[in-house]
Amino acid sequence: MQPTELLHRFFDEGLEDSLEDVLFERMAVDAELRREFLQHQKLHHVIQEDVTGITTPSHVSQQLFMSLGLTPPDSSAPPAAGLGKRIGAAMAGIGGVLVRGRRYVFTAAISALVTAVFFLGLFRDEAPFPAAMQDLPAATEFPQVTP
Fold first, then answer.
1. Does the first or last residue of the chain, that is N or C, have fewer Cβ atoms within 10 Å of its Cβ?
2. Band of the pLDDT at 119, cuts 50, 70, 90?
């Protein structure tokens, strides 16, 4: 499969893990393929932003349904809330990122867990400083400096 075809499938429908690995291995050694990937990524992002703002006029939708021999949807129904659509699109985008970057998400979650356990272990006796800091000799007084 050609690298360009892999790029198109990656952005359009996603790739299996094995093909995704092949794509990223090829991008690691091919600067032109990396530039093409970045162009596809920018274009994909712009299209996703534009799609959320496009609304098909109701008469066009009704004519399309009728020309296909289908019953058009009820046009008297209240329009969906714009905020709800944006939140839904954002959640779908986040879900897609989590699925595509599941390795990174898993690594980040494990790192956060290890860090939390580390800090809980350091401050487990509710002292303001770790126990190692309490064993250090306390400074008695700082010398006075006169100008």
1. C
2. confident
